[in-house]
Amino acid sequence: MQTLLQCTTFLFALLISTQAVAQAPFPSIARDPEWMKARIADLNPPDKGLPENEYSLIEERRALESEISYLRAFAQQPIDRTKDLDVIDKVKEAISGSLADISKVDCSKLPDGRFTLNEAIKNQMMSLQRLQSTYPWIYEKDPFTFAPWSDEGRVSDAELCARWKKFVGDPAKQAALLTYFEHLKSRLSDEAKKQAETRTLAATLIDLLQKRKDVVDQRLAAQSTKTELSDKLWIVIGVIGGFSIGAILAVKLFTEAIQIEWVASGQVIQFVTVMILLSVIMALGLAGILRENTLGTLLGGIAGYVLAQGVGRAAAREVSRGREKGNDS
Fold this sequence. Notes:
The protein is mainly alpha-helical. The protein has helices at residues 2-23, 33-42, 54-75, 82-104, 116-126, 129-134, 157-168, 171-231, 233-250, 256-265, 267-286, 292-328.
């Protein structure tokens, strides 16, 4: 029955923790250093808010391992954006050259009737697709949606050429087209600075998570030891009980005078009582009902009582012997 209850409790805790992980995935920390700072503050001290239940501790440890792995993978990501910035500069330079060539072309005298500059601009834009897939968050509204090449396939090359010449003749549109690249570079540089900041924060957070995991491991080890001791407690109590009975029977091994002395003084009964009390205190401590402070107080009280009784009995026996000698004289 107890095993069934433990299994049910474990499955319930596992279900709750799985739902919590599914509902609270890690954020994109590369763009959210504030989350990292809040997480660091939440882990000071590392043992803050740790559960007591063994199954909850196991799930806590699993979540910590997942978070540490995530952070370590993030910390290993490169933060040098020099190559990506060079790509943007090259695309901007190539498109600027194509726009300059468009302003010189005669749309009525296209070579072979083809307006190839539109294809050249389109190819340059395709080279930015890798950046867009890698850093989708740096892209906002694409200014190329209103560029003439978006109408390719629905008009003739001559008409497309005329539209491009009209586009180039509008300084505002041409400026917006070229400013777009500077905007990309600015956002990419800002993201690199954020990632450098969060990488520093990640190192601090990993250290705190590792310390928290160490605390969880210590508590799980203590829980395991407590479980093992609890499982074998009946053996310990049996040994103590047998030893107590043996102590009572061992009195018969001594002379009658000593037997009378020990029994009359109550030492045998006190010894058995102390052993029983120690067994009960140990059982309550292993069950987690008694805490460290309470256990220390009880054990200290019992030790003080036993020592006081021993000293008191010794003093009383000395006084009694002194009287007996005085009467004899």
